[in-house]
Write a structure and sequence with these properties.
Elements: H1 4-11, H2 15-23, H3 30-43, H4 49-56, E1 61-65, H5 74-90, E2 94-98, H6 103-111, E3 118-121, H7 131-136, E4 141-144, E5 155-158, H8 160-173, E6 178-183, H9 186-190, H10 194-209, E7 213-218, H11 223-236, E8 242-245, H12 251-260, E9 270-275, H13 277-282, E10 288-291, H14 294-309, E11 317-320, E12 324-325
Parallel strand pairs: 1-2, 1-3, 3-4, 4-5, 5-11, 6-7, 6-8, 8-9, 9-10
Antiparallel strand pairs: 10-12
Helix pairs in contact: 1-2, 1-3, 2-3, 5-14, 8-10, 11-12
Length: 335
């Protein structure tokens, strides 16, 4: 293992000079600093994590708080996590993943120690019980999601309200007059999870503006539940010709259920979704969708945290506009 004395010998300076050059704790000439950094790179030297923490009073670790509650679609959540971890490594930070539903206790347990420098919090609720604690912490935080009251917080997410609107507006332009939202599992709405609630708000508002008949149907994330919802929709809304899906696991099973009930997609029924592009493209009938920009959201959340750790001012709200891609699942309504 390369030691600090090896770097000092290679750069022709003392070990203390190497320490000061790499930690920034004392001013070092630019020429010396560059020589030390070049020697460290050439030898493959990396300071011990504990030594870095002692030198800088930082752990170089971010906490990613993702309570794996009922109704969470883990594969999509992990896309956010991978993006956070990858971006954090670019800034020489590791990520501590917290998945238990501990609420304030879990946050306080981590924040009151030297385990992490900052926090990224996911699965945000409209009436988020963790907000008072997050506002009081000395450690900076970023929320992926928008509570009803986001004042004094740093939040980033897809504009889910605008995403719901974009799907309905697309169907309205194609002449559809009766539309339905097949949404997240019921427990997600019971918790008032912010992104799911905002999709409903956007869907309903856009349908009302366009004079469409609309309805919202939570759905468990299983093929059996998708079949039940498809049958219920056709019984209760026989004129239905447009569907928005915000529930990744049932996208393909729902389309199959409608086809088994005699509806052709898109000939009789147009389907849109809010989901990752790769999922929309993989369905047998590729689905018109608003992309879920998990990679961009995760990356920008870390960048916001890095700026806050560096003392820079960042915007409180970052809403990414929806990007709708038309595919084979939507068509003009049959007269």
């Amino acid at each position: 293992m390369v030691k600090i004395t090896d770097v000092a010998r290679h750069a022709g300076v003392s070990p203390s000079t190497v320490s000061y050059a790499l930690s920034g704790k004392r001013p070092i000439s630019e020429e010396t600093r560059q020589r030390v950094e070049a020697a460290a790179r050439e030898l493959g030297y990396r300071p011990h994590a504990g030594a870095r923490a002692l030198a800088s009073s930082r752990s170089n670790v971010l906490a990613l708080v993702i309570p794996l509650r009922a109704g969470i679609h883990v594969p999509v959540v992990m896309q956010f996590a991978v993006s956070v971890v990858t971006t954090a490594r670019k800034h020489d930070h590791d990520v501590l993943l917290l998945t238990q539903e501990e609420g304030e206790d879990g946050l306080r347990r981590v924040a009151d120690t030297a385990l992490v420098d900052a926090l990224i919090v996911m699965d945000v609720q409209l009436r988020e019980p963790r907000l008072p604690l997050l506002r009081s912490l000395e450690r900076p935080s970023v929320l992926i999601g928008f509570p009803a009251d986001s004042e004094g917080l740093t939040c980033i997410d897809l504009d889910f309200k605008a995403a719901g609107e974009a799907c309905v507006e697309h169907l309205a332009r194609l002449g559809h007059r009766v539309v339905a939202l097949v949404g997240s599992p019921p427990e997600v709405y019971v918790r008032q999870t912010a992104f799911a609630q905002r999709v409903v708000q956007g869907f309903t508002a856009a349908a009302d503006r366009s004079g469409l008949s609309s309805s919202v149907h939570p759905c468990e994330a299983s093929p059996a539940a998708a079949r039940l919802v498809a049958g219920q929709l056709l019984r209760e809304h026989p004129a239905l010709t447009g569907v928005v899906v915000h529930n990744e696991p049932i996208l393909e099973p729902l389309i199959e259920a409608f086809e088994q009930l005699g509806l052709r997609v898109p000939g009789d029924l147009s389907v849109t979704a809010i989901c990752p592009d790769e999922l929309a493209e993989s369905v047998r009938v590729p689905v018109t969708s608003v992309a879920l920009p998990s990679a961009e959201v995760g990356e920008r959340a870390v960048e916001l945290l890095m700026k806050k750790l560096g003392g820079s001012t960042v915007p409180e709200a970052t809403l990414l506009p929806p990007r709708l891609t038309e595919r084979a699942s939507t068509a003009p309504r049959n007269a």
